[in-house]
Design goal:
About 0% of the residues are buried. The chain has about 40 residues and is an all-alpha fold. It has one domain. It is rod-shaped. The longest helix has 23 residues. It is built from two helices and no strands.
Length: about 40
């Protein structure tokens, strides 16, 4: 829940930071997806 609050705060302050957070979020999903298959 803390990460969600931080993401909302970053979204309000800088729209550019939202893209960075989204990239990291997708990277984490891909990382865990690879671990799941192995």
């Amino acid at each position: 829940m803390e990460q969600k609050a931080v993401w909302r705060g970053g979204r309000r302050i800088h729209s550019g930071r939202q893209h960075v957070a989204l990239f990291i979020f997708c990277a984490c999903i891909s990382f865990f997806d690879i671990i799941y298959y192995f």
